[in-house]
Write a structure and sequence with these properties.
Number of helices: 11
Mean pLDDT: 93
Number of strands: 8
Low-confidence stretches: 1-10
Strand content: 5-15%
Helix content: 40-55%
Distance between the termini: 47 Å
Largest sheet: 4 strands, mixed
Bound molecules: flavin-adenine dinucleotide
Order of helices and strands: HHHHHEEEEEEEEHHHHHH
Length: 393
């Protein structure tokens, strides 16, 4: 099967030519209404314009750059994926509204979905015709994801699902949700993750209620999602019923990768912006602040060099994604704290003050989502350092 993705330009045969191709495309398509919009803590910013931009990217064949050619992608090498993210960040391309679908759901269906599921969902994912959200966390199950209590039972030709999800990013705009639900009890003495099933659930139906959660920043980019006899078709299980854990873990792994490099170029832009504020307000003349700004630059250079080394390594060093996550969360929270001290040293004006306050507040979430810092350190302690396993309740 092939995904309907048109290409505006012919494929190119060197990385440098590829860089020119994407740079040129971005120059023509990153318009002022979307430049620099969105990002962590700013998901509502210019949402409709960012959606339109994602569809332009899709029409150019860029949303599925990393997907295999057999599934409608470009099968781009890692170096080209890195170039793509570097150029997007450099051009001020807005943050993607489709990332859950194109970087998590698409690859999951390519590797674990049925031919029918691929036929049905990949074209709309590639074209950004449908948006997705991730229904894993629950009030009693976050780090301990195997503890999800949302239940699904097969009733004729459909699954009936009851439970509650929480912190569901973008659920208020999503058409579909991938839901981890219990369909059978865990076997006595067996893993708690057994009996969990990975279901694709339509969001727009009477059994699904989405309630926004207001965050520290004032924005509401995540939600509570109530599933009260929500339904989905019997065939919309990815993998086998009761064996969804492996699929759920695979989806998380796709989230990390070449996009990390683009994220770090975004960090560089943040640091440049803060340097501009510090120069403007005179804070850059304060020896203690100069020292911290310089350290932030050095730490980011080290983080970037380390990330590129890890991405190119085959096999990657053990638990490298945990190490990178820990390094960047500390860097971003440090920059937020530094920004507060820069603001305190001079009058930056309302716009910069608001922007950096939101940055500081949202960065508190960095050490929670995508696996908290404690969980990452636990993984490294047990799997790299061979320390005794933590007692679990
Ligand atoms: C901005 C944001 C967006 C999110 N988006 C989504 C989404 O789209 N979909 C989704 O499903 N979820 C989402 N989440 C939820 C996120 O995955 C969970 O918040 C995260 O897994 C932590 O779970 P929890 O909040 O239940 O905290 P808990 O797991 O209860 O943890 C509370 C504290 O205890 C610590 N802790 C827990 N277990 C251990 C342990 N074994 N050892 C040491 N310390 C431990 C944690 O580190 C943390 O400090 C999002 C969260 C945030 C902040």
């Amino acid at each position: 099967m092939s995904v309907r993705v048109s290409r505006e330009v012919a494929p190119v045969d060197s990385d440098e030519a590829f860089r020119i191709e994407i740079r040129d495309w971005l120059e023509r398509h990153v318009t002022d209404d979307v430049r620099g919009a969105g990002g962590p803590g700013r998901e509502s910013e210019a949402f409709e314009q960012r959606l339109a931009f994602a569809r332009r990217l899709a029409a150019g064949g860029w949303t599925t750059l990393a997907w295999p050619v057999a599934h409608g992608g470009r099968g781009a090498s890692l170096s080209r994926q890195v170039i793509f993210h570097e150029e997007c960040a450099r051009s001020g391309a807005p943050s993607r509204v489709d990332h859950i679908g194109t970087t998590m759901v698409g690859p999951t269906l390519i590797d674990h979905g049925s031919p029918e599921q691929r036929r049905r969902f990949l074209p709309a994912l590639a074209a950004v015709d449908e948006l997705w959200c991730q229904g894993y966390s629950e009030p009693g199950a976050g780090s301990d994801l195997a503890g999800v209590t949302t239940r699904a039972r097969l009733d004729g030709d459909r699954w009936v699902i009851t439970g509650q999800k929480v912190w569901t990013s973008l659920a208020h705009v999503a058409d579909w949700c991938f839901v981890l639900a219990r369909t059978a009890p865990a076997p006595p003495g067996g893993p708690r993750s057994a009996g969990l099933t990975y279901l694709l659930v339509p969001m727009r139906q009477p059994g699904v209620t989405v309630r926004p959660i207001r965050q520290l920043t004032g924005d509401s980019e995540f939600n509570e999602v109530f599933l009260d006899d929500a339904v989905t078709e019997a065939g919309l299980v990815v993998g086998e019923p009761g064996r969804g854990w492996r699929v759920a873990m695979a989806t998380l792994a796709y989230e990390r990768g070449a996009a990390t490099v683009g994220q770090q170029i975004g960090f560089q832009r943040d640091l440049d912006d803060l340097l501009a504020v510090a120069r403007r307000t005179g804070a850059a003349g304060d020896p203690a602040l100069r020292d911290r700004l310089t350290r932030a630059w050095v730490d980011l250079s080290v983080l970037r060099a380390h990330t590129l080394r890890v991405l190119r390594a085959d096999p990657p060093p053990p638990m490298s994604s945990s190490v990178i996550k820990l390094l960047w969360t500390r860097w971003r929270q440090g920059l937020g704290e530094l920004a507060m001290d820069v603001l305190a040293a001079g009058d930056a004006g309302p716009e910069a003050t608001g922007r950096w306050q939101r940055y500081f507040l949202f960065s508190r979430a960095d050490t929670i989502y995508g696996g908290s810092d404690e969980i990452q350190r636990g993984i490294i302690a047990e799997r790299v350092l061979g320390l005794p396993r933590q007692a679990r309740g």
